[in-house]
């Protein structure tokens, strides 16, 4: 037993050191200068994290003015994250979506409204049955105007709910596209039990809240 004590102390020491390092790296991400993604061929990009990206992808793809949604990872301090690595909660990344949209049809402000209307805004580190930092809510801003829109809407919602809103506000740095099998997941796997029990009900709840933003075929 005595021989194990030094080993335990050493392990604990290095574990604390690693946690401190991760915290330092994550703070650097949070305090970084945002990177603005240029509009190409009239299309802009916005980035959100709100639980399982399968669910969020389906929600934004139902919205007028949104051309495409790509699933991936953002908000962390490691490069080239994978699904398995992100699920450990140690990369800092959250499951995120890249929303490619036409700003002449839908504004960033409305995309933020969609974001809050399609989730439980007070759930910390998750949405529904999905829990962990990889499922936390984050809204990414690319400039001061977007940051102010997010902050104002978050504050207004907190006032209405009389509760803290869980969504974190991060400067956008980089989006890492997820593995191919995660893309268009709900469309390709409508029979999947998770899709049936979580994704589709979440999408339908959103549709009831904001029918005015839906595409004609939704």
End-to-end distance: 65 Å
Shape annotation? globular
Oligomer: single chain
Largest sheet: 6 strands, mixed
Provide the low-confidence segments as ranges: 1-17
**CATH class designation:** Alpha Beta
Structural class: alpha+beta
User: CATH H-level name... which superfamily?
Assistant: Peptide methionine sulphoxide reductase MsrA
Integer-rounded radius of gyration: 19 Å
Strand elements, count: 8
Strand proportion, as a percent range, falls in 15-25%
Number of helices: 7
The H-and-E topology, N to C, reads as HEHEHEHEEEHEEHH
Q: Please, how many domains?
A: 1
CATH architecture: 2-Layer Sandwich
Describe this entry's structure for a reader:
It contains seven helices and eight strands. With 218 residues, it is of the alpha+beta class. It has a single domain (39-213), classed as Peptide Methionine Sulfoxide Reductase, Chain A, CATH 3.30.1060. It has a six-stranded mixed β-sheet. A two-stranded antiparallel ribbon has the order 4-5.
Compact description:
With 218 residues, the protein is an alpha+beta fold. It is 41% helix and 18% strand.
List strands and helices in order, with pairings.
Layout: H1 4-30, E1 44-50, H2 53-61, E2 66-74, H3 83-86, E3 94-101, H4 108-117, E4 126-127, E5 130-131, E6 137-141, H5 144-161, E7 168-171, E8 176-177, H6 185-188, H7 193-209
Parallel strand pairs: 6-7
Antiparallel strand pairs: 1-3, 1-6, 2-3, 2-8, 4-5
Helix pairs in contact: 2-7, 4-5
């Amino acid at each position: 037993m005595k021989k194990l004590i030094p080993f335990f102390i050493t392990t604990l020491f290095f574990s604390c050191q690693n946690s401190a390092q991760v915290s330092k790296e994550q703070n650097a991400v949070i305090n970084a200068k945002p990177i603005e993604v240029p509009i190409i061929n009239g299309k802009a990009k916005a980035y959100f994290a709100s639980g399982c990206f399968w669910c969020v992808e389906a929600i934004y793809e139902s919205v007028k003015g949104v051309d495409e949604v790509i699933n991936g990872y953002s908000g962390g301090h490691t490069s080239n994250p994978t699904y398995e690595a992100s699920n450990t909660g140690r990369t800092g990344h959250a499951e995120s979506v890249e929303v490619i949209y036409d700003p002449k049809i839908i504004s960033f402000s409305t995309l933020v409204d969609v974001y809050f209307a399609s989730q439980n805004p007070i759930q910390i580190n998750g949405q529904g049955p999905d829990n962990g930092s990889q499922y936390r809510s984050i809204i990414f801003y690319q400039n001061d105007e977007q940051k102010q829109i997010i902050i104002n809407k978050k504050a207004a919602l907190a006032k209405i709910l009389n509760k803290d809103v869980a969504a974190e506000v991060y400067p956008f740095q980089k989006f890492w596209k997820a593995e191919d099998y995660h893309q268009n997941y709900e469309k390709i796997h409508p029979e999947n039990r998770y899709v049936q029990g979580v994704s589709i009900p979440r999408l339908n709840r959103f549709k009831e809240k904001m029918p005015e933003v839906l595409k004609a075929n939704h």
